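Session log. Operator J.P. requested a structure for one protein chain; no other inputs attached. Running the standard single-chain path with token output.
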Amino acid sequence: AHPLVLEAAVLQAVETGTAVLIEATSNQVDQYGGYTGLDPAGFRDQVLALADRLGLPRERVVLGGDHLGPNRWRDRPEREAMAEADDLVRAYVAAGFTK
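Structure written below.
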């Protein structure tokens, strides 16, 4: 989620006429903000604003989530961890993540 890495990836897609796949991990982006302070919708908005600024059509931006299971909440009881993971996946899907 580092801004320079995101910019380099988007610029590569612009220069090559390809799509860009940008993935966020559950530690970076979650329903509570993750360590970036962004929930999935906020991360999406940040990436799409960057794509707009650099001239990459939004339809060439693919957003993905990585490690979206219960591992983030492994210190909690199974039922609670799974409920958190369900909420996490729902937040990613609602924000338009497709991978």
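Operator note: Residues 3-94 form one domain.
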